[in-house]
Amino acid sequence: MDDRAFAPLAAYADLASGSDDLRGLDEVEGDPVDLWGTFAPPDLPAGLLPGIIEHFARVQGERMGADPAGLAVAALVTCAATISDAIKLQVKRHDSWTESPRLWAALIGSPSTKKSPILSAATAPLCRIDAEMFHDWQARMRAYDALPKEEKAVTEKPKEKRLRISDTTPEATQQVLEASPDGVLCLQDELSGFFGSMDRYAGGKGSSADRAFWLQAFNGGEFAVNRVGRGSALIPNLSVCLLGGIQPEPIRRVAADAHDDGLMQRLLPVVLKPATMGRDEPAPDVVGQYRALVEALHKLRPPSWMGVGVVKFSDAAQSVRRDLEERHLSLQSSEAVSRKLASHIGKYDGIFARLCVVWHCIEHASAEHLPETIGEATARRVADFLHRFLLRHAVAFYAGTLGLSDDHDRLAAIAGYILAHRLERVTNRDVQRGDRTMRAIRECDIRPLLEQLSALGWLTRTDGPRPSLSPHWLVNPAVHIRFADRARQEADRRAEAKAAIRGILRAEP
Questions:
Q1: Higher pLDDT, 397 or 500
Q2: Does residue 33 form part of some domain?
Q3: Mean pLDDT across the chain
């Protein structure tokens, strides 16, 4: 990520990752954000992922010509979905808050980024186990159906336990989860269909009910079902991991139309890089090693012979968690720039804990008994992966794919006006004199927009000439130096537009 392109959040990200090369937040105000900049996703870091996952992602990425970042995150979600929800982490030492390995992720890219092959490669071992479970259930159903009537009446009908669902509705998911307390993976080749189905199958109030269902599925726990004509049921654990791909334009529409309930912000976004030529040459059997890992994770049980034990952080790991919690609070000050990004960061305390469970289980997948304690080394690797990789992908998504701010177009219009007219001070009246986009801004919205530009390093607030007047805003002189080329482009564009209008008005009828 170009730190100059998104200086405020880059500084917070450096703070969160413990970088020694920190700029003070006061200095950030002197470095205005490039509202027209691009936000490149980061490379997959070395040495932070569990060894098998990183090896699988890099080798398969070279074979397929696909971004290893997508393979790594898809593999992590697959592992999380394979691990039983009975394995829980007690997040705080003196609190009942627990987290299970439940992750949501979205691979974002054009069709040429090989989203579907990435999803197929990463989820193949889980799908294989699920197919075996399905065929076993079919065999048990055939045996049940063949029972004599009297014996069948006193025999419990075989339950369909699954690991995977796709192209599903809440009602169908409920039916599967009644017999799948360990959780399932909802695999969506196109997430646009997942979000669109909420409106397609149930408009208005029904759509809100669907969204509430999926929000609960992210949280896990008991879920009571009351069906008209079909009776009631109690789902012991409504737990769904979610993994899918989506193109930039559909996700922009989803973000624009979404209810402000945080459903989309629960997804870990991975912005895929363009595909490259794959390789057709001998390579280590990473597919077999990865498949063996997933199979081992499926058999892993909690660290207790009764199956009710919980995993805990060591004292040193607990210290890492507390430091992260404090840093996440600081990062959420990015709400002044992007409310959606701040909401996403607000989920990081829980996501960190869930990732720690996944790391811990992968590292001890072959052990006879899962250790009860997550150590400092694991916690630090997860923390670094969260902030050096996932956070920066989130910035690339929320600031790049969706636009730097929720009001990006209006902010860019005001910024362009400042540059074109070389303003040293901005008032409400200046905004109302601007182009069509600016003149359409309601007076009550002007101040929040100028406050956002202040957070982005463009303006500094100062009191108006009289207490009764709105505050004025001093323009950061650095904007006219850094964006001199942009200023010339804006001035030329506006001059051309005026000349074109004058030409039309002077034209002969």
A1: 397
A2: yes
A3: 85
Q: What are phi and psi of 98, to 5 degrees?
A: -125, 155
pLDDT tens digits, one per residue of 256-281? 766 667 899 999 999 999 999 888 88
The parent domain of residue 455 ranges over 408-506
Return d(Cα 51, Cα 358) in angstroms, integer.
13
What's the rounded mean pLDDT across residues 33-39?
75
CA-to-CA distance for 422 and 403, rounded, in angstroms? 25
Pinpoint the alpha helices (H) of 162-314: 170-177, 191-200, 205-219, 248-257, 286-299
Give me the mean pLDDT over the 481-507 stretch: 75
Task: Tell me how crowded residue 192 is: count the other CB atoms within 10 A of its CB.
Answer: 17
Whether residues 422 and 278 fall in one domain: no
Kindly state whether residues 97 and 207 are assigned to the same domain: yes
- Going by DSSP bridges, is the β-strand pair 184-188/240-246 parallel, antiparallel, or unpaired? parallel
Q: In this structure, are 308 and 395 located in the same domain?
A: yes
Torsion-angle region of 136 (φ positive above 0: left; ψ -120 to 50: alpha; else: beta): alpha
> What's the pLDDT score for residue 28?
37
Determine the average pLDDT of the residues in 355-366. 96
* Tokens coding 498: 């005026």
74: domain CATH number?
Answer: 3.40.50
* Alpha-carbon gap, residue 409 to 431, rounded angstroms: 14
Do 316 and 376 touch, CB atoms closer than 8 A?
yes
User: Is residue 80, in this structure, part of any structural domain at all?
Assistant: yes
Q: How far apart are CA 202 and CA 158, in angstroms?
A: 31
Q: Is residue 42 part of a domain?
A: no
Asked, for residue 1, whether it belongs to a domain, the answer is no
Residues 277 and 323 in one domain: yes
- Alpha carbon distances (Å) from 65 to 44, 59, 310, 397, 430: 15, 10, 40, 22, 51
